[in-house]
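Reminder to self: keep the SMILES exactly as supplied, no canonicalising. Ligand is S-adenosylmethionine.
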Amino acid sequence: MEKTLGARLLRVAQSIPRCETLVDCGCDHGYISIYAAKNNIAKRITASDINRGPLDNAEKAIASAGLCDRIKTVLTDGLDGISRHDCVVIAGMGGETIADIIERAPWTKDGSTLVLQPMTRSEVLREYLYREGFYIFDESFVREGRHMYCVISARFSGDITFEPYEKYISRNALGKELAKEYTDRVLSRLNYELEMKSDAGKVCEEEKKRYGEDILSLTEMRDKL
Ligand SMILES: C[S@@+](CC[C@H](N)C(=O)[O-])C[C@H]1O[C@@H](n2cnc3c(N)ncnc32)[C@H](O)[C@@H]1O
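Structure tokens returned for the bound complex:
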């Protein structure tokens, strides 16, 4: 039976540019790969996962969709052992894990488009991308149930300068649907984190200052939306 993608996965899939080669890293069920093959978004697709169980599920779904000739599966950690692909999708993992996977695959700087959907700590991922010279050329937001997710598209371009708020929402996302609501949620989280850490006596002056600067920068930007 055909799987209908939920709002989050659909947004990820629709953010993939037409390309020759696509790798769906952490493919789990394989739905993104299957969507990309069926919709002729990519000619050749690699679906990878670090765990055998999810990869078995992906292989079954790919076989029952009759797409074994278009989608290759690989059991590996991140992009280890995988050669350059035109587009890299990494969705449904923490921002730190995604950054670590990109860091360990230097070929991602060789013109590949990255489509990234962090579940947590997206600020760590954005900051990593800027510092490594990846330009976030698109970012959009999608709501699914109670949750709101960002989908980031980036490509290596060299030196990048960024304002403190851009760790939390990139400049090209500011005019997007749900940008204000997304920013409000981030601000609530930052204020809550700072309050919790302060109450527990777990925040040093330097960290307090950083929270203060980030909250101020993000609040000033939000007020302009
Ligand atoms: C929550 S699922 C997300 C699946 C799908 N990408 C999505 O967005 O719905 C995370 C998947 O990533 C895999 N994973 C976690 N860490 C990984 C890594 N370092 N390399 C490859 N896959 C990983 C897990 O085994 C799991 O199948």
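Points to follow up:
Residues 9, 25-28, 49-51, 54, 77-78, 91-93, 97, 101 surround S-adenosylmethionine (CB under 6 Å).
Strands lie at 19-25, 42-49, 71-75, 87-93, 113-118, 134-144, 147-156.
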